Amino acid sequence: MSTGVYQLPDLLALLPKKPGGDISPHFKEADTGFNAWVHKKLGWFFAKVRVYNAEMPLLAAVAWPLASCQELRAILAYMTSSFMLEELTDRCSSTKVVDNSQLWINTLRDTDGGKTSRHPFIKTMRKELVPMMKAAVDPFHWPQFIAANERFAKNVIREAFVRDADVNENAVNNIQSYTIMRRETIGTRPCFVLMRSTRRLYIPDDVLAHPLMEEMEDVAIDMVSIANDIYSFKKEYGDNGALTNLLTIIQKDPTTDHLDLQERIRYATKLFNAALDRFHSCRQKLPSFGDVALDRHVSSYADGLVDWIVGNIEWSIVNHRYNTFVHEKDRRNNIMRLNSRLLSSQHFILFFIVTVLSILFGHLPVQSLYRVFYA
C-alpha cells in the first residue's frame, strides 16, 4: 500500500451526546494515581511504553463518566489485568495460552487461585488488582463480572487454537464470522458489567438474556469494534499489516474484495450505521419487565452503552497509541495519512526511539488530552 490520504468518517456526528456527561470529574486524580502506581509496580519499559502509551485513564474517564474515583481506579485495575492477559497469551502456543488463560481467570475468581504462580503479573493481580476491583464492584455485579470474564478467557483460548491450527479460514476471511468472533475477543462485555455497577443498575441474568437485550449489547460491541478497527488501522498496518482488522477482512471477503482502502472505510461506516440502526430498533422494542424500577434500570443500561460507544470513539480519536492523525487540523477533518516509508524497519526504529524519548523528556500526552476534553 502506497502513501495516501484517506477520509475517515465522523462517527461522533452519527451518535447522540453521552447521557452520562462528557468525562468523569475524577479523571485527573485517577490518572495521577494510576500512573504513579504503574511506574512503581510494572517496571520502566512496560510502564513507559506499553501501559502509559495506552492512556487507559482517559478511556476509563470518557467511557464511564459517572464513575467515582475509587471506581475509576478499579476499572483501571481491570484494564491492567486484561492488558496482562494479552501479554500472557499474545505470542505463545495455544497450549500455553490455555494454561495462562486459566491461571488468569482462576486468579480473578479467587486470589488463592494464583497463589502458587511466580509470574509477576499474576502476583500483582492477586495482591493488588483483584482486591481493588472487589472493593469497588457492587456484590450484585461481581458474579456477572466473573461470568463475562470466563466467557472472554474461553474465547481467547479459542482464538489461539484457530491461529495455531489455521484451519478455520472463515474466521479471518469473512466479515460475518469476523464480527461474531470479535464480539467475544475484544473484551468489552466485562466492561459493560463494570458500567452497570458504576450506575447501580441491578438487572438480573434472565432479563439480560432477553433476545432484544442480547442483540442490543451485541450491536453496541459491534460499533465499538468497528470504530476501534477504523482508528487503529494505521498503527496495526505499521505493526503487522493489520492482519486482524476489519478493513483487511473486508478486502479478503469474496463479496467485497474488489474495494480499495477508501471504499473499505466507507463500507465499514455502513456497517457501523447498520449496527446503530439495530441498536435504536432494539431499544425501542424492549418490553416492560413487569417492574418500574427494573424498566428504569434497563433504560439506563442503554444510556450507559451509548456512553461507552461514544467514549471509546473519543478516546480513539485523540490517544497517542493509535496516532491516527498527523496534526490537529487532520483530526478535526478526519483525515488519515498513510506513509509507506514508515513501514520500513529503519523508519520504524526511528519512530520508536522518538516516541520513547518524547515520553521520557516531558511530552506528556495525557495533559494535552485533558485540555481537549476540558477546553
From TrEMBL:
Keyword terms of this UniProt record: Lyase, Magnesium, Membrane, Metal-binding, Transmembrane, Transmembrane helix
Source organism superkingdom: Eukaryota
TM region positions: 348-366
Organism classification: Eukaryota, Fungi, Dikarya, Basidiomycota, Agaricomycotina
EC number(s) on file: 4.2.3.-
InterPro entries registered for this protein in UniProt: Isoprenoid_synthase_dom_sf (IPR008949), Terpene_cyclase-like_2 (IPR034686)
Cofactor names: Mg(2+)
Protein name, UniProt field: Terpene synthase
Enzyme class: lyase
Signal sequence coordinates: none
Similarity comment text for this entry: Belongs to the terpene synthase family.
Swiss-Prot/TrEMBL GO biological process terms: isoprenoid biosynthetic process
